[in-house]
Predict the 3D structure of the following.
Amino acid sequence: MALNNETVLSRLKEHFGDAVLDSYENFDYLNIEIDASRNAEILRFLKIDTQMNFIYLTDLCAVHMPDQTGKELGVVYHLHNLEENYRLRIKAWLNINNPEIASATSIWKGANWMERETYDFFGVVFTGHPNLRRILNVDHMEVFPLRKEFPLEDSTREDKDDRFFGR
Amino acid sequence: MAEQSIFGEDFIQPEERQYNTLNLGPTHPATHGVFQNILQMDGEIIMQAEPTIGYIHRAFEKLAERRPFYQVTPITDRLNYCSAPINNMGWHMTMEKLLKVETPKKVDYMRIIVMELARIADHLVCNSVLGVDAGALTGFTYIFQERERIYDMYEEIAGARLTTNIGRVGGFERDFTPGFHAKLKDFLATFPKRFEEFDRLITRNRIFMDRVINVGPISAEDAISYSFAGPNLRAAGVDYDVRVMNPYCSYQDFDFIIPVGTSGDTYDRFMVRQNEIRESLKIINQAYNNMPEGSHHADCPEFYLPPKHDVYNSMEALIWHFKIVMGEVDLPAGELYHAVEGANGELGYYLISDGGRTPYRLHFRRPCFIYYQAYPEMIKGQMLSDAVLTMSSMNVIAGELDA
């Protein structure tokens, strides 16, 4: 049976019910928001289920939305079913005060460095990761630089604030 | 408390053997870039490797959050700087998808010519340098002249050679110049012969074959699990190519095959790249001979910088010019992922726009970064000299690795 947005969504809902929090389409791409505490079992199911068969983890990154109280940090997984050429985006939102989510390294080996990068820039703690250290930044760095509160510009400057960038 | 080993808890040195620690890099002539690998060696055999990366991290994703869309293009140049035009085009196409700009067929074909030239240049660098690492300097000295000719063609189109910043959102700044046509025709006429000459020098060379066959192999399962992409994945036998799976930029119009290997070793990676150069030539020939008539840019004045002559002579063009250059064009809100087949594999752009003038979040899926993590596993149990060849054949580009 060919995969499409409806079949994937209904199969996930059938298996995980209320762990599927929300879903929407964006440029033909199905986005599914899942319960962050159950991400490992959902991702494992997406990989090993013969119908889902998402054997390829295209990308793993995070996004910081400071305005969404209680779910500021989003971990975004891009999955790809190579046989049917179907792509899927999974999102799990975390509270920034307790940004913990289960690691996907035991599902896809390639998640290792992608999770280290996400930890490095956003401070998302992947529990069960074998070697969760900073990867691109220096080890003694104390901030998570891609979070929105980390200023890009010199904070004493007044000529470059968000007004000039349309926000 | 004992300091935790960087090699992890499962690394135990047997009591009867004394391992040597060797720093390969960060600046080592054999690694072609800023890579550090701390190796545990048993004689000349690598028992464990720990790569350290990030030496040239330049915070591209953070920088992009404060840059209007056309200022992000120079950032993408500096990812895989051996094939910068592919990165530029990937970004332009991502923006066009967000802005819902339709490009004319002619733009697609022009882009394909430039992208395939970039792919040839990238593969030439990788393969000839692999020859150098194996001791075959001759092929490198000859074939680098061909890369030079490709750079001359970039210069005709965009005025730059390495970090090209080529094209614009919506198309190109100008049509291909007569100089470019002459250079491309000359290239298409003479390059195949010279390339086959290079091929004859290296490919069936007994010494080269002995040095690379069964060196640094990876199975198809592992390659997929490690999210390999591009020639490295295809060398392991997986025929995944974004140009065929998710055709962008009219790639569906062209007739070409995806070369695949079987064992995923250094020789297969070399052969896949060699054959991709031939396929790229086929694509360029088809695109050049069937070049459609039409405009070299899409009709989208609010995003496409007007020609300089119009800026000086027409009020409207001046307004658009000012608005675009000052970054005062608001982008529509949206979230999308667009991937192109870079020289190293699937180069993805994950863009979240909140309706501001700059990306809210931009993440680059950099194929190098993702497949380099398999390197320690690939060289475990191999000789030190083989590790150098493995890295060279994987085409790890420091700029793409560290973003």
Summary: Chain B has a mean pLDDT of 89. Chain B has one domain: 60-402.
